[in-house]
Amino acid sequence: MSPAFLIKSVGLGLLAVARLSSAELAVTSDLTVDMRVPGEVNLAWTAANLRPYQLEGSMDLLTWAKVGVPVVGSGAPVSMVDGPVSAARKFYRLRVGAVRPGFDQYSTQRNDDESSGLVPIGFPISLFGRTETHCYINNNGNITFDRQLIDWTPNPLQNLGFTIIAPFWADVDTRPARSDVVRYSYSSETVDGHPAFGVNWMNVGYYSSRDDKLNSFQLILIERSDTGAGNYDMEFNYNQVLWETGDVSGGVNGYGGSPSRSGLTNGIDRTVELAGSSSPTIQLDANPATGQPNLLTGLIYRSRNSNIPGRYMFQVRGGSVLGALAVNAGPNQTLGPGSNSVALDGSASDPDGGAVTVRWSVRKASGVVTFSDPDILNPTVTVPTVGVTELMLTATSVSDPNVSASDIVQIK
Question: DSSP string of 164-200?
Fold first, then answer.
């Protein structure tokens, strides 16, 4: 797809589309531009698939800005107005999806919860104080370094006790006929001239052998030794998220239960999870009950450090993930005789010095749980006197609301 349509300037700074030939424009017919109302530019295209389309405009072909919100392709014509005159631009382009082409040189076998052997990354990466050159590619939407991970139900990443990079940890099942397998490349791909490693979970199904809904997402590691030894950029790219949970993770038709988690952690005290991680339905392309797109919360519509919807970029410098948060829900507690309430002892911070907000929630309980205030670090909580209650503390960056981190505490 060609990146832009040229709009000529017509007197008094007004912009209009001249009837230029295709040779003058050298673009595809996917995007048409028309000036139907003075000072306003009407743009139209046919969004022929389920990927998100983001329209962008520029005055100089160097700096691009979003025009409107992402639009989900449905096969129907789409139109959008840019204007009035003060907002009009000379160039427009459509960006379609976030997944980068390629990164499919090798593949795994069809499976449910298996992992690859150690796969070379192609260049050394420094992560949380360690240098890694190989990783395990796990079918369930993540890579690890110390061990293979077959677990299908995601837990708060920080509680794992080991390092994980998880663009979409959930119960991926590539056995059904319509599902593709997991594919990856190393030492053969580049991004902007830099060596890159990538894993594709494209059009993958979910447990148990379900392919009525398919997800497409990708992990990319981009070597950036030009900024320092072991440095790299990391991308989570999402083109389609139609399911969030496997059948044995409490899901029903791919929804609810213990939904997917997206992020990375050292498993101890540094974590980045995308905001909305583990929250039912909001990460999906659309609300399954209403069919309305989740434009504010869906993974394919948001972005981080990128103007491409569905792309979340993290910089790793000197082994530290810029933006990673520290959160601790405190020690597990035991109720005293005749007591059903305790004071929680949480902590949360941004090591880079930014502010965070916090929120306590109930992850598991046999009855009603009440907080004196769920939005402070140390509330008093009243819990059932039978069974184990599991609470989760989530911290979210104020300056970067796409970033959060969670930890859990048990009370019995």
Answer: EEEEEES-EE--STTPPPPEEEEEEEEETTEEEEEEE
Give the residue from 299, 321, 343 where a domain finishes. 321
Residue whose C-alpha is closest to residue 87's, from 111, 73, 66: 66
Whole-angstrom distance, CA of residue 183 vs CA of residue 303? 24
Report residue 5: phi and psi, to 5°.
-110, 140
Query: Looking at the structure, do residues 37 and 141 belong to the same domain, yes or no?
Result: no
The domain containing residue 353 runs over which residues? Answer: 326-411
Closest among 218, 219, 247 to 152, alpha carbons compared: 247
Task: Give, in order, the Cα–Cα distances in Å from 244 to each of 70, 286, 288.
Answer: 21, 12, 11
* Dist. CA 6–CA 21, nearest whole Å: 11
Using CA atoms, how far apart are residues 65 and 307, in angstroms rounded to an integer?
A: 8
Instruction: Quickly tell me which residue has 């300056």 as its tokens.
Output: 399
Residues 54 and 161 in one domain: no
Residue 8 has what pLDDT? Answer: 33
Residues in the chain, pLDDT under 50: 1-29
Residue 79: both structure tokens together: 């139109």
CA distances from 243 to 273, 286, 373 (A): 18, 10, 33
Helix (H, G, I), strand (E, B), or coil: what is residue 222?
Answer: strand
Same-domain check for residues 230 and 343: no
CA–CA separation, 15 and 36 (whole Å) = 11
**Residue range 246-303, pLDDT digits in tens:** 999 999 999 999 999 999 999 988 899 999 999 999 999 889 999 888 989 999 989 9
How many of the other CB atoms lie within 10 Å of CB of 65?
11
Q: What is the DSSP letter of 62?
A: S
Predicted model pTM: 0.80
135 & 186 share domain: yes
* Residues 175, 214, 158: CA angle, nearest 5 degrees: 90
Q: Is-contact 214 166, C-beta < 8 A?
A: no
Given this model, what pLDDT does residue 48 score? 63
Model pLDDT for residues 186-197, shown as the tens digit of each residue: 999 999 999 999
